[in-house]
Amino acid sequence: MKFFVDTADVDEIRELAPSGLMDGVTTNPSLIMKAGRPMMDVIAEICDVVEGPVSAEVTATEAEAMIAEGRKLAAIAKNVAVKVPLTWDGLIACRTLSNEGNMVNVTLCFNANQALLAGRAGATFISPFIGRLDDIGIDGMELIEEIRIIYDNYENIETEILAASIRTPNHVKLAAMAGADVATVPPAVLKGLVKHPLTDKGLAAFLADWEKTGQSIL
Ligand code: E4P
Predict the structure, then answer these.
(1) Which candidate in 90, 92, 116, 214 could, as Cys together with 84 as Cys, close a disulfide (CB 3.0–4.6 Å)?
(2) How do residues 36-70 score in pLDDT, each as one tens digit?
């Protein structure tokens, strides 16, 4: 499974880059607001740091305007994935932008039929929002499982499942088990995946014993 990082904070992205674990980035209007900087600058800077897809979301709600915004965003860098919402107009914009050779991430997916439509509209990525479904008492992970089954039934659907609204390391594990192609995670969740108290405890014991040997490797 690939990892995208869900942030518009360029410093956080720069810090994660040396790990080699960051296959792309997703942003949304709320994350841009949080960054407090002009969107076009932020996306351009992220695209300089990250080789993989960088999602930049349109804010228009009608297809023609979404397409115009999408073209402008896609012109920032070749690795921009235009993000459109899962509405009828969003699907029209997805088809047009995809036909023009752009990557398109269809966002705000909350059921399997929406994902089926996005697949038919030529989406590069479908973003089912796990955490927000969990928030209203619906098992978000079931949606990933349903989409996986549907997409695997049809060879002509090449859309990748991008598990979004991931809030915990357990979400990451379950999304991987359900066959998500990508998980987009906040930086803190990505870094949290490495943590285990027995790893820390074991390392402390090894280092204490090593100290007693009086040796050094270098
Ligand atoms: C994905 O592309 C979205 O930006 C993000 O995952 C939404 O997460 P949230 O529900 O925690 O805001």
Answers:
(1) 90
(2) 999 999 999 999 999 999 999 999 999 999 999 99
DSSP 62: S
Which of 9, 124, 184, 185 has the most ligand 1 atoms within 8 A of CB, as the residue to mutate? 184
- The domain spans of the chain are 2-213
CATH 3.20.20.140 assigned to domain 2-213? The reply is no
**Nearest residue CA, atom 6 of ligand 1?**
165
Two tokens at 26?
A: 């997703």
Cα 58 to Cα 74: distance, rounded to the nearest angstrom? 11
Sort 2 into a burial class: Cβ within 10 Å, 0-12 / 13-18 / 19+. Answer: middle
Strands (E), the chain: 2-6, 24-26, 54-57, 80-85, 103-109, 125-128, 160-163, 182-185
**Ligand 1 near 26 CB (within 6 A):** yes
Pairing of β 2-6 and β 182-185: parallel
Q: What pLDDT digit, counting tens, does each position of 138-188 carry?
A: 999 999 999 999 999 999 999 999 999 999 999 999 999 999 999 999 999
83 among known catalytic residues: yes
What pairs with residue 85 in β-bridges? Answer: 107
